[in-house]
Amino acid sequence: MMSFMGYTRSYYKRENIVNWMGKIILCNWKMNGSLSMIEHYFSELNLEPTSNKKCTIGLAVPFIYVQPFQEYLKESTWRLGVQDVSQFSVAGAYTGEISASMLKDFHVQFVLVGHSERRQYFKENNSILFRKIKNLLSENITPVFCIGETLEEKKLGCTQDVLNQQLSVLDNIGIDINKIVIAYEPVWAIGTGHTPSQEEIQMSLGHIRSQILLRHSEADRIPILYGGSVGVGNAKEIVSIDHVDGLLIGGASLRSRDFVKIVESVIEIT
After folding, report:
1. Phi, psi of 110 (to 5 degrees)
2. Exposure pattern of 173-205 as b/e (b: 16+ CB <10 Å)?
3. Do the Cβ atoms of 185 and 147 come closer than 8 Å?
4. How far apart are CA 80 and CA 28, in angstroms?
5. Contact, 112 vs 83, CB < 8 A?
6. Where are the domains of the chain?
7. How far is the C-alpha of 169 from the C-alpha of 253, rounded, in Å?
8. Phi and psi, residue 44, nearest 5°
9. Residue 192 and residue 181: Cα distance in Å, rounded?
10. DSSP structural state of residue 84
11. Is residue 8 predicted with pLDDT exceeding 60?
12. What sections of 144-224 are H helices per DSSP?
């Protein structure tokens, strides 16, 4: 047991590499949360109905709240993740950065990479995203690689070209590509209440599957998630679509009761 300033490290220790079971439901809390909010969230949340072999549940939380989430999740089967990692692999003078090896110390199991908000606000490009993915894989942490087109790109009819360009990040990953999860999030659907039709989702995810198979013949095992305005009203319908291996949920995951309803609806059809 290791203790530092009241923080005991023995209570939460898990393998970093995730063994995905059934449908995958990942939550992106973005820059939300407080200690009081987290306490209230789990006071309303009955973990038992959401602990099921039919699905794997994970929370991507702000770095600073990893410790309290670990405390609440210590008796559950949920996975714990964060929303970013440094592109730099070696410790050094990179103020504000958090490396993959630091995340491994805290038993973080997955990390979002390439979210459209990171691409937009922090100008993250393919070379940066490639380094982040490689750093995570070197520490046996699962990268959840987010891709998706903007509304303008959709209107121009170049969705597949955009996805191809984004997926080119994976060209030189090699056999470790099987350790990655891909999340398709149309930028125009995130937080807007608008979602693509079932046919559009199926077509886009089918295209993504064909593209990753071109990069590695055994990549058919890579889970592909859908994200973008997923809520209680549409989760069951979306997760029933061909090629959809799970969901990446944003705002709806901040409301514990809604989140439980989403999970229960997914379990119901699997």
Report:
1. -150, 160
2. beebbebbbbbbbbbbbbeeeebbeeeebbbbb
3. yes
4. 11
5. yes
6. 20-268
7. 29
8. -90, -10
9. 24
10. -
11. no
12. 151-155, 159-167, 198-215
Residue 142 DSSP one-character state: E
The two tokens of residue 121 are 């606000």
Catalytic residue list: 115, 185
What average pLDDT is seen over the chain?
91
Over pLDDT 70: what percentage of the chain? 91
pLDDT at residue 48 is higher than 70:
no
Structure tokens that stand for 180 in this block: 């990655």
pTM of the model: 0.93
55 in Cβ contact with 179 (< 8 Å):
no
Architecture of the 20-268 domain: Alpha-Beta Barrel (3.20)
What gap in Å lies between CA 20 and CA 182, rounded to an integer?
13
Beta carbons of 238 and 244 less than 8 angstroms apart: yes
Angle at alpha carbon of residue 86, lines to 88 and 217, rounded to 5°: 85
Neighbours of 23 (CB within 10 A): 22
Q: Which residues sit opposite 112 in a β-bridge?
A: 144
The tokens of 33 are what?
A: 């949360």
Q: List all residues 6 or more positions away from 199 whose beta carbon is below 8 Å from its beta carbon.
A: none
Residue 53 scores a pLDDT above 90:
no
Output helix, strand, coil percentages for the chain, rounded to the nearest 5: 45, 15, 40
